[in-house]
Design a protein that fits this description.
The structure holds two protein chains of two kinds. Helix content of chain A is 63%, strand content 1%. In chain A, helix 3 packs antiparallel against helix 17 and helix 13 packs parallel to helix 16. The chains are: A mainly alpha, B alpha+beta. At the A-B interface, helix 4, helix 5, strand 1, helix 9 and helix 10 of A face helix 1, helix 3, helix 5, helix 6 and helix 7 of B.
């Protein structure tokens, strides 16, 4: 490792001299910090758009009989008479889901924080391949553009749900959105997967090869563990979605029958024979379920770091946290069938998937209890980041517990595709992951932009969003239990759903208020970027390496040699030390008064030195006490 | 601080300007309102939806009103096109702008509060006293408050919204599902309450201060083992219970399958077609290639099993008798979902699926049990299938065996006289063809 560090320094000095234009610095940047910011801001924009879509369809669900003339002025024929059309409603639901899951919570979350933190927390000058890193962002940007472009197509954007189950997604005649809109969706998704794969391979190789001296795997912060395992999950599962997407493109455009068979659409007998729509579901959920953990694990990693730092306590059970992440990684690949209990899949197989699904609750429970134990007897500082991290734990518990219902095949019969599912995943992967992302933004904003965000606006943002999210999603559980299916344009047609109309109006109000609350964040974010208070080097008194870099960004991160790591990242409030944190770069020789025998990991020589020091210093210390 | 920016001089002036604009905007909106009301008064009898809004709202129906008046004036729907071209959207813009301004004003108000707090803190620090507001403490208290309010809210939801759910399962297996559900609900609710008390309680109790240091407690293997093993045991219980419930519902012996009343349901955009198997309790073969406007299901009438198959507009089931639904789809995926029976199975084109269950209560009994005279079992579609997905229903009735037989006797056969005639003609044609062929080869 030492040789790598020296080599890097030399390379860095070469770099320092080349001329940077606006184009190479802000647009086609190969610097991981800039790319992280690009991912973040694109992610935020996509998030705002997707949130706006959700408000649009909440208007329809909350007030199914009222007309909103303003909608017609903007949406034209899609909202004729001021009411959103059923086709366009489904398009909104579809694109809301796609954007949130892929663009905001995958690229916006992993893309931002993996890029920012992997080199900074591991002590690397940049990513393993800066050029591929840039390419990853631009593939992502292109994917976003094409997805947005589908709104400017005559037949409208894709509208078969974010899971785009064929045959609905394969047959343009079945729904207007399955025309050109769906083609654009598929192209966009292919580009997005390319972006994710390039990114993930880059993260993995950086974590494995470019750690600084002393940074062995068991000294990595939990954020890095989470990003690393997320990248592995991504590399193994995204290619399967590509294969599924390519087959669907073939079915749509070249007359193959991978997913189609025995179809008579509007009186017309289609020639396709021998395919199976279930095949798509297997391929899709083989990515789709790991995707949930691709979204969630980085958020959990960020939370671990933020909770430990702001409780001023080591994260409880560091090893257990890593092993539970590994457990989730492995198990995430063998649970996809729980999305398909009632598709007509062999019921015995359903039983097997049920067992694996409920097993995955164990590592999740371990993580939750470890968070609670970390807070216990802490010295908590409520920074906005900490608030959002606590909010994440709350959502993770609530949403996780409803997962125990849905993972149970017998209960899923009655709950499948109802609002119970909507409530469940919006809490456990929607709200929780968004809170992880916001927590990360508040926490590392000083690192990204060199300025502080406003705390009080952060508090306001947290409480409005936290309460808003619960008010939106908690009542949905009960709707689902009553058998109200999801993706319904209106609840006016069925007698038993009519009693939920008032609840829906309430949910819509809560959603609108929570959406408006995001303006507090957006104002805070963009205002602080330019006018915020200048950040000190280590504003949160944190241990990890990124806070040893200068506030002003520079290419290569550290001005001199990359610092060496001597200890794990969670030495907070260690007894015997004068401050309540000890950065990873502080050698044990400087903290003789607080070292514990366990710290030396079996290094006999170091232990002897420590013993000697303790003997020499014991008496004066005891006398002082007396 | 960012709040200071709001109060820089130019911003302040622009704000004043906006407030002035708001005043005029409001006045105009008032005017608009009165006209809207007068128009509404004229067309009041035409439509109930055009009730005059008391304040100009985002959801104002002004545009509708103009359209309606056009409609009324000419008495023909064609005129709507002309009305649309001339639709005046300015009221919509105005009411939208009105709300936007209102929201902006609210933001300014928040900004003022922020500024006041900041001023207070600054004066405290100038006076040399410690910082005025301990935000850390306040957040801790807010968490405690959120815990109490949240737990009460959850309790309220459980009792009030929980009461809106149908609690009586209409089928036999549904009761096993409900039992399983209740077990899971009790366990998860206990965990939910305890973990939230701990989470928010710790947040309240361990609020940081300069005087204190946190307790260095990196791990405790015994504790970690405990909270790995306990969830594992609880989940094992749930898995076993769930697995046997699931197998009990889905794993039905072939003998029982044959005994069950056989009904076929086929989904298409956006309706269900029901076919009763008739006396032989077996539905006839189908082939999607035989589908024509008259033969909607593509029934292969050469198969004699199809001759007694019956067409029905609704689903009527005899109570306490096992019934097996064969579920199919013609175009895209649908899902056969009857919530009160706790029954769901996807309808897949090219792959028939099935679900077998036994209705326990007749519709009448359920009406009494649920205290809802309007109660009806209903079949709906639960898998997104297109623009009409939200309204794809079939009424399901559960009646006594006797009523069922009477009802079934009244249902028409698929294999009716028209079909027979068609078949005969086809047969003759085919015979003629073979004759011709035979003639030619001679």
């Amino acid at each position: 490792m030492a040789s790598t560090a020296i080599h890097d320094t030399a390379a860095h000095q070469d770099h320092g001299h080349h001329h940077e234009t606006f184009l190479t610095k802000y647009i086609f940047s190969q610097d991981h910090k800039m790319i992280a910011k690009q991912f973040l801001i694109t992610g935020i924009i996509m998030g705002v758009i997707a949130m706006f879509f959700s408000v649009l369809f909440r208007l329809q669900l909350g007030w199914p009989d009222k007309s909103f003339p303003i909608l017609e002025t903007f949406l034209g024929k899609w909202a004729e008479g001021g009411r959103i059309k059923p086709d366009f409603y489904l398009a909104l639901v579809t694109i809301h889901g796609t954007m949130m899951v892929f663009f905001v919570l995958t690229a916006g979350l992993s893309g931002t924080f993996s890029n920012l933190l992997i080199p900074l927390q591991l002590g690397a000058r940049d990513m393993a391949s800066p050029f591929l890193n840039m390419l990853s962002y631009w593939f992502f940007f292109l994917a976003c553009t094409i997805m947005m472009g589908s709104f400017f197509v005559e037949s409208g954007p894709a509208s078969a749900g974010w899971t785009i189950y064929p045959p609905l997604s394969a047959l343009p005649k079945a729904i207007a959105g399955s025309g050109l809109g769906m083609t654009l969706w598929l192209i966009s998704m292919t580009l997005f997967i390319a972006s994710s794969l390039i990114g993930a391979l880059n993260y993995i190789s950086t974590v494995l090869n470019m750690r600084t001296k002393g940074m062995d795997l068991w000294r990595m912060p939990l954020t890095i563990w989470a990003f690393f395992l997320t990248a592995i999950v991504g590399v193994l599962s995204f290619p399967v979605l590509v294969s599924a997407v390519v087959l669907l493109i073939f079915d749509r455009s070249f007359g193959t029958s991978f997913y189609l068979s025995d179809i008579v659409l509007q009186g017309q007998i289609l020639p396709n024979q021998g395919g199976s729509p279930i095949l798509w579901q297997h391929l899709f959920w083989f990515l789709g379920h790991p995707e949930v953990y691709i979204v969630l694990m980085p958020a959990l990693g960020i939370t671990s770091e933020v909770i430990a730092t702001n409780s001023r306590k080591p994260i409880f059970g560091y090893h257990a946290m890593v092993y539970s992440l590994i457990g989730i990684t492995v198990l995430s690949f063998i649970v996809w069938g729980h999305h398909m209990f009632v598709t007509g899949m062999n019921p015995f197989l359903g039983g097997v998937f049920m067992i694996t699904t409920l097993i995955i609750a164990v590592p999740s429970a371990v993580k939750t209890f470890n968070y609670l134990a970390t807070l216990w007897r802490g010295n908590i500082r409520f920074t906005p980041a900490m608030m959002f991290a606590i909010g994440l734990v709350s959502f993770f518990i609530s949403g996780g517990l409803t997962g125990i219902f849905l993972g149970n095949a017998a209960l899923d019969i009655n709950l499948h595709d109802t609002y119970f599912v909507v409530a469940h995943f919006h809490l456990v992967m929607g709200s929780a992951a968004i809170f992880g992302m916001l927590s990360g933004v508040y926490h590392w904003f000083p690192k990204m932009f060199g300025r502080m965000m406003d705390e009080k606006l952060g508090y306001l943002h947290f409480w409005l969003t936290f309460i808003g999210a619960y008010l939106v999603f908690f009542p949905m559980h009960f709707m689902g239990l009553d058998g109200v299916p999801r993706r319904y344009y209106a609840f006016t047609e069925f007698e038993f759903m009519k009693e939920w109309l008032t609840v829906n109006t309430f949910i819509s109000w809560a959603a609108i208020i929570a959406a408006l609350a995001q303006i507090a964040f957006l104002y805070n974010f963009f205002n602080s970027m330019f006018f915020g208070k200048k950040a000190p080097q280590n504003p949160w008194e944190s241990n990890t390496l990124e806070w040893t870099t200068p506030v002003e960004h520079l290419h290569g991160n550290w001005p001199g040699e990359i610092p060496t790591v001597h200890r794990w990242p969670y030495d907070y409030s260690k007894p015997g030390h004068d401050k309540d944190f000890i950065p990873q770069t502080t050698p044990f020789s400087e903290t003789m008064s607080s070292n514990l025998p366990h710290d030396f990991e079996g290094n006999v020589e170091a232990e002897q030195i420590q013993e000697k020091w303790v003997k020499e210093n014991k008496k004066p210390a005891a006398r002082q006490k007396a | 601080m960012s709040f200071r920016k709001v109060f820089s001089l130019p911003t302040f002036f622009s704000m004043m300007l906006l407030v002035a604009l708001l005043g005029t905007g409001f006045a105009q909106a008032q005017n608009q309102d009165s006209t809207a009301v007068s128009i509404t008064a004229a067309t009041d009898s035409a439509s109930a939806t055009t009730a005059g809004p008391k304040i100009p709202t985002l959801i104002s129906t002004d545009v509708d009103t103009t359209k309606l008046s056009w409609n009324l004036g000419d008495g023909q729907g064609n005129k709507v096109e002309i009305g649309k071209v001339e639709t005046d959207f300015s009221p919509a813009y105005k009411s939208f702008a009105y709300y936007a301004l209102l929201f902006f004003l609210f933001c300014v108000f928040i900004g003022i509060i922020g500024k006041a707090l900041r001023a207070y803190e600054l004066t405290r620090s100038i006076q040399g006293k410690s910082e005025g507001i301990n935000w850390n403490r306040i957040q801790g208290i807010l968490f405690a408050f959120a815990l109490l309010v949240g737990l009460y809210g959850a309790y309220w939801s459980y009792t009030n919204q929980g009461a809106m759910i149908n609690h009586t399962s209409g089928s036999v297996h549904g009761e096993r599902i409900d039992f399983m559900f209740n077990v899971t609900l009790v366990i998860t609710t206990i965990v939910f309450v305890i973990t939230h008390i701990l989470l928010f309680g710790f947040a309240y109790k361990y609020v940081g201060s300069e005087k204190r240091k946190a307790y260095y407690y990196p791990h405790n293997n015994a504790l970690e083992r405990l909270w790995t093993v306990v969830p594992a045991i609880v989940l094992t219980v749930l898995v076993l219970l769930g697995f046997f419930t699931w197998r009990g519902i889905t794993n039905i012996s072939e003998e029982d399958q044959k005994k069950a009343l056989s009904i076929e349901v086929t989904g298409e955009q956006f309706k269900w077609t029901v076919r009763y198997a008739g006396a032989d309790n077996q539905v006839g073969l189908r082939n999607y290639k035989l589908i024509t406007p008259t033969n909607n299901l593509g029934i292969d009438y050469r198969d004699q099993k199809s001759w007694d198959d019956k067409l029905a507009g609704e689903i009527v089931l005899p109570v306490s008798r096992s019934v097996r639904f064969t579920i199919g789809a013609k175009d895209v995926l649908h899902s056969f979902y009857i919530p009160e029976f706790r029954v769901q199975m996807n309808a897949v084109p090219g792959m028939p699926t099935s679900f077998q269950f036994t209705p326990k209560y007749t519709t009448e009994e359920m009406r009494e049990k649920t205290n809802n005279p309007g109660f009806d079992y209903v079949l709906l579609c639960a898998k997104i299938c297109g623009s009409g997905h939200y309204n794809m229903q079939v009424k399901v009735k559960v009646v006594s065996e006797q009523d069922y037989q009477t009802w079934l006797a009244q249902q028409p056969l698929y294999y009716n006289d028209d079909v027979k005639k068609e078949m005969q003609m086809a047969a003759q044609k085919a015979a003629a063809e073979t004759n011709k062929m035979a003639f030619n080869t001679k």
